[in-house]
């Protein structure tokens, strides 16, 4: 039983990590897009 619980907990943690990475990638892409827009406006 405890082994099964550990597996579930690890799975949940992995899911959360992936969600955080996705959020970071979204933030990074948005920042990158804004930087590109700024450069484009300057030119």
Report the principal-axis shape: rod-shaped
Largest sheet: none
Average pLDDT metric: 88
List the uncertain runs.
Answer: none
Helices and strands, in N-to-C order?
Answer: H
Number of helices: 1
Distance between the termini: 64 Å
Counting helices, strands and paired strands, the structural category is mainly alpha
Biased composition (Basic and acidic residues): 1-24
Region (Disordered): 1-43
Describe this entry's structure for a reader:
Helix content is 95%, strand content 0%. It is mostly helical and 43 residues long. The longest helix is centred in the middle third of the chain and has 41 residues, at 2-42. It is rod-shaped, with a radius of gyration of 19 Å. Residues 1-43 are annotated as: Disordered. Residues 1-24 have a biased composition (Basic and acidic residues).
Report a brief summary of the structure.
The protein has one helix and no strands. It has one helix at 2-42. 0% of the residues are buried.
